Amino acid sequence: MIKKVLVANRGEIAVRVMRSCREMGIHSVAVFSDADRSSMHVRYANEAYHIGPSPSTESYLDQNKIIEVAKKTGADAIHPGYGFLSENATFSQRCKDEGIIFIGPDKEVIATMGDKITARETMIKSGVPVVPGTNTDLNTDELALKTVAEIGLPVMLKASAGGGGKGMRLVKDEKDILSSLRSAKSEALASFGDGTVYVEKFIANPHHIEFQILADQHGNVIHLCERECSVQRRHQKVVEETPSPLMTEKIRQEMGEYAVAAAKSVNYVGAGTIEFLVDNDLNYYFLEMNTRLQVEHPITERVIGIDLVKEQIRVAQGEKLSMKQEDVVQKGHAIECRIYAEDPDNNFMPSPGVIKHLTEPLGLGVRQDGYVYEGFEIPIYYDPMISKLIVWGNNRDEAIQRMRRALYEYKITGIKTSIKFLEKIMETPDFISGKYDTGFIEKNDTFLFEKRKCDSDCLDISMIVAMVDYQKRLKNTLNQDVSSNGESGWKKFGKKTSMNRF
């Protein structure tokens, strides 16, 4: 049995994993960089160890340091969270070689599904529908031009080792093929150390729908239904919900069966996600598999009634899944908003700095997975996401209203955040109706970025702020006058005022 888990991550996901460990009676070990010395996950863990400078390459991505701490503390297992080493095949094998349980799939599965070309080939052999495209590297200009001509514009150039929108280019015009190929390869090489790029037919304005899967070491594989992830900016998810407003029961069953088949085809073990693109005619195609926990996993937990981290740990120590496919029933509706330390009015530039005030939303159906507190300084070295706000309602309308209320209550000062931008999303007619796709933000650009006019309440607040500021400055002036020559500041102020009348 696992008694101690080292969490090889930081921020909100580290705290989230540690919470489940504490409920299971499992001790947690935190690792931290210079920038995270006072971070919440360091305070929450049973033990915490410094592993290096602030840059992730010298701390959270340093396998040797993490393995060293795991052995030093006697950790039975390592939970990688998401990002960093979570989908690193070499790290998974390192843990195994050191006699440490890696809470995730083995090296072969990560390597197979982490390489997009290999994953496509595997899905085709398994009978899972895939987007029309190639399974080879576009390693010459001649091959690239020939392949795109055969598939037909528009196309997407994609990094085989990619993720998070990196190494990805949309090509609509023939004259842009080679320049886009070079930039995609360059970015892929810089981001992943692998410049392999392939091509897929571009599906205009698709829906991004993913299925959560769970698999144990005894051959049992189930899916926990879908998540709608189509509200995206630069291929990064912003808002997720479940169930998907697009889904029908028939399509859900079909896609769920394909998701299970995809997992079985690689002998998957643990929690993972099968992602699909779905067009407006409900044709669906395999996109990729994430061999880890997803950022948006809490909404599935809320409607299914399961703790995915606990399931990961139980599977890792050899237990069978706690539920069967027939036990999976969605109850109500859940929405997640990602809260970022960034400025939506300035092209979403990151906004590091010290949090001066923090009021987190509470109440029925509200969950907040975060890691910051008043006085904490958001570092510049990592992803700017600072929390995830999750709400649940009996139905979608109630969930949207509850999210509006929760966002209204969420107050952070000292830094710029995406909270107001998320409030606008919740007010957008296309989102409210559920009729949206991955082009949602671009289509609603005018509404989302509309500058709010100052109404009478706004003017009243401005006048109050101006008066308070004036009184503060006046008080400082009077204090200075008294300290300078002992004469009453009010008396001097009266003289100055009288003189200014003439």
Class based on secondary structure composition and strand pairing: alpha+beta
Number of domains: 4
Radius of gyration computed on alpha carbons = 26 Å
CATH evolutionary superfamily of the largest domain: ATP-grasp fold, B domain
* Broad CATH class of the largest domain: Alpha Beta
Q: Assign a percent range to the helix content.
A: 25-40%
Counting H and I runs of at least 4 residues, what is the number of helices? Answer: 18
Q: What is the topology, as strand order, of the major beta sheet?
A: 13-12-9-10-11-14-21-19
The CATH topology of the largest domain comes to: D-amino Acid Aminotransferase, Chain A, domain 1
Number of strands: 22
CATH architecture of the largest domain: 2-Layer Sandwich
Keywords, separated by commas or semicolons:
502 residues; alpha+beta; Rossmann fold; Dna Ligase, domain 1; D-amino Acid Aminotransferase, Chain A, domain 1; eight-stranded antiparallel β-sheet; five-stranded parallel β-sheet; 18 helices; 23% strand
